[in-house]
């Protein structure tokens, strides 16, 4: 979706996240939640598209995160919205691992 990576922001050590865990970091003014799922890393904006709740603080069920406020669900891997009351996908961010460190792409 028109991504142009301007910078890779160093976040945490890859080893800081166990399977099913997440960390929330600030990337260029965005709150970004990075999850480790099935041995891979995925980053979504930590803002529910329904009413702005911090979605990463909700329950993770499989690859879906459940918004703690009203129960909307989003796929952590794709950002795709899975159930009401949210109707818009949540933003995703590219993640990579370099020398054992997680890096998230900042948007240009
Ligand atoms: S704020 Fe997330 S479902 Fe309402």
Question: What does this 3D model show about the protein?
Answer:
The protein is mostly beta strands. It has one domain: 3-layer Sandwich (Rieske Iron-sulfur Protein). It has no helices and eleven strands. The protein has strands at residues 5-13, 22-27, 30-37, 40-45, 59-61, 64-66, 73-75, 81-83, 92-93, 95-98, 101-107. The strands form three sheets. The protein has a four-stranded antiparallel β-sheet with strand order 2-3-4-9, with no helix packed on it. The protein has a four-stranded antiparallel β-sheet with strand order 5-6-7-8, with no helix packed on it. It starts with a strand and ends with a strand. It binds FE2/S2 (inorganic) cluster. FE2/S2 (inorganic) cluster (FES) is lined by residues 48, 50-51, 53, 67, 69-72, 85-86.
């Amino acid at each position: 979706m028109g991504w142009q990576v301007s910078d890779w922001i160093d976040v945490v050590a890859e080893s800081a996240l166990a399977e099913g865990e997440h960390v929330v970091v600030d990337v260029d003014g965005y709150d970004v939640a990075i999850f480790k799922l099935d041995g891979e890393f995925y980053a979504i904006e930590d803002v529910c598209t329904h009413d702005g709740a911090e979605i990463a603080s909700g329950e993770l069920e499989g690859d879906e995160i459940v918004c703690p406020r009203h129960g909307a669900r989003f796929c952590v891997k794709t950002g795709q919205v899975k159930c009401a009351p949210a109707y818009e996908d949540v933003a995703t961010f590219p993640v990579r691992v370099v020398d054992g460190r997680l890096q998230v792409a900042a948007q240009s």
